[in-house]
Amino acid sequence: MSELTFRRTSRDDVPLLEVMSTSPNVLPNLGTDQPWDWPREAEASWQEVWISET
Fold first, then answer.
1. What dihedral do alpha carbons 39, 36, 27, 49 form, nearest 10°?
2. Vertex 38, ends 24 and 10: CA angle to 5°?
3. 34 or 2: which carries more pLDDT confidence?
4. Cα-atom radius of gyration of the chain, to the nearest Å?
5. pTM, 2 dp
């Protein structure tokens, strides 16, 4: 069985985050105020964005 781990996102994750944020099953959970600016928000000092890995 694989272990699930969580880590903070980095700039290396931006391509994956951009693909995932356009996925139909993810869109309803992102909110409607404005699109995410992943290159800026993936490493923002004022928030934490986490990603899981197996």
1. 70
2. 115
3. 2
4. 12
5. 0.70
What single-letter DSSP state applies at residue 37? -
One-letter identity of residue 12? D
| Cα separation, 15 vs 12, whole angstroms | 7
Q: Which tens digits make up the pLDDT trace of 15-38?
A: 988 888 777 777 666 666 677 888
Domain boundaries, the chain: 1-23+36-54
What tokens appear for 9 in the block? 């996102």
- Are 41 and 13 in contact by the 8 Å Cβ rule? The answer is no
- Give the per-residue pLDDT at 33: 66
Amino acid identity, position 53:
E
Report residue 42 as tokens. Answer: 């993936």
